[in-house]
Amino acid sequence: MYSEKENFDKEYMYMPICNNCGNKWSWSTSLKMGFQFQRGVTCKFCGEKQYQTQASMWKTSLYSMIPILLLPVVILLNLSVLLSLTIFLIPQLIVIAMYPYTLELSTEQEPLW
């Protein structure tokens, strides 16, 4: 029987898997996909181009708004510049670090809308 932590890890904390060859991508390879301007990334195992799914693009877009939503709070509280940057940057770094766990791959390019 699985513990709650193992169940959570299996359900939510997984790395993307290539739809062509079934190999699991590393955290760093997945993170690189988020910083590239091209839509697809070639799988280093099979050489097939992989694309981010539409559902994954939506999740990524929503998560990336979290730091932006904190901006009005920082402005209203009239905090110092250093504290304001800290409050803004820490959630941004967390969102970036979690990006590979929200990434889902597809062999076909899907539109965002």
Rg over CA atoms, rounded to whole Å, is: 17 Å
Overall mean pLDDT stands at 82
Largest sheet: 3 strands, antiparallel
Total strand count, please?
3
What's the end-to-end separation, in Å?
Answer: 41 Å
- Taking pLDDT < 50 over at least 5 consecutive residues as the criterion, the unreliable ranges are 1-10
Strand content: 5-15%
Determine the fraction of residues in helical runs and give it as a percent range: 55-70%
Which structural class do the helices and strands define? Answer: mainly alpha
Form type? elongated
Number of helices: 4
User: What's the arrangement of strands in the largest beta sheet?
Assistant: 1-2-3
Along the chain, the helix and strand elements come as HHEEHHE
Can you tell me about this structure?
This protein has a three-stranded antiparallel beta sheet with strand order 1-2-3. It is mainly α. It starts with a helix and ends in a 7-residue tail after the last strand. Strand 1 (40-42) and strand 2 (49-52) form a beta hairpin. It has four helices and three strands, in the order H-H-E-E-H-H-E.
